[in-house]
Design a protein that fits this description.
The structure is a single chain. This protein has 8 helices and 5 strands; from the N terminus they run βαββαβαβααααα. It has about 220 residues and is an alpha+beta fold. It has a domain of about 130 residues: Reverse transcriptase/Diguanylate cyclase domain (Alpha-Beta Plaits, 2-Layer Sandwich). A 5-stranded mixed sheet has the order 2-3-1-4-5. Strand 2 and strand 3 form a beta hairpin. The chain is globular.
Length: about 220
Amino acid sequence: MAPGPPEASFVCLTADVIASRAGGRGMPVQEAIRGALARANRAFAPQLAVPFSITLGDEFQALFRDVQGALEAELFLRLALAPLAIRCGLGAGGITGPVAPRTAEMDGPCFYRSREALETAQGRRAPLTWLRSGDGETDAAANACFLLLAALHGRWSPKQVEALGVYLEAGTQTAAARVLGISQPGLRKRLQSARAPEYLEARGLLGAFLAERLGPRPGP
C-alpha cells in the first residue's frame, strides 16, 4: 500500500451529541458530557496531546498523538455517554504552531479535516464516525468500515451497550458479569447477540490499518 500523508503526526477528534436535549441517564446533557470527558482524559492521558474540552454547546474536541488512541477514545465515549448518541469527525494531519492547553487555541490541517469529517457525519443523520486524512484511498477504506460499524452499534439495545462498556472496563467476562449482577453465560449471550466480538475485531483491524497508513514514517 502507498504511504499515508507525511504530515499526519496528530489526530483531532471532534464530536457532538445527537438530539442533545433528550438528556442522558436522567442528568443534564452538559453534566453527562463533562463527566464522560473527565473519565476519558484520565483513561487516555498518555495518548492525548491536548485533553478533551467542550468547544461549543454539546460539541467537544481533543488532539491525539496517534490514530489508535483516537479510535479507542471514540468507542469509550460512545459507551460512556449512552443513551446519548454522538457523531465524530477524525482529522489526521499536522498542526500550525506549538501545542496549546486547549484545542480552541490551535490551528492546522488536522483541525480543518476533523471539522470537515464531522460535517459529513452530521449530514448522514446517524451516530457515525468519519475520517479525513488528506489521503483519499485511506479515507475511502476507513469510512466504508465506519459506515458498517455505525449500522451495527446503532441497533444495540441499552443492555447490550451497558454489557460491552462494562466488559471493556472490567477486562474479563467474569468480572463484567459480577459488576452487572448477572451470570457469565448471560453476559456472553448479550455480547454475542450484539455481535460485539466481530465489532471489536473489525475495529482492531481498522485501527491497525490506519496506524500503518497514518503513523510516523521512518526517515530516509
